[in-house]
Amino acid sequence: MAEIIPMPKRPTREPEPLWRDALGEQLRRIRHDRGERLADTAERAGVSPQYLSEMERGLKEPSSEMIAAVAGALEVTLVDLTAAVVDELRDRRATGPAAVGVHTGLVLVA
Prior knowledge:
Blueprint: H1 19-33, H2 38-45, H3 49-56, H4 64-73, H5 78-95
Pfam families: HTH_31
InterPro entries: Cro/C1-type_HTH (IPR001387), Lambda_DNA-bd_dom_sf (IPR010982), TransReg_Diox_bact_type (IPR050807)
Organism: Microbacterium terregens
């Protein structure tokens, strides 16, 4: 008769944040820092306020053209916006489970 051997439990990891969520948070943060209303930024970007709101909440997967339009309306470059999103994602990783010794299986090369 076979013996059932329990497998060691792997530490559970929080799911990786989606790019669109981090992008949306950065867009909202920049807009708020500038003291702008959603409708004003959306008008300058040529998008509807509803669409910009959905971008900020991570509900839309915006095209590169849409991201560029909103970045332009906020007077930030795509490079600066992308760097801010990357920094946000790094900060989340640094404060998440991987930061306390959970092996992720990834090798980072600096």
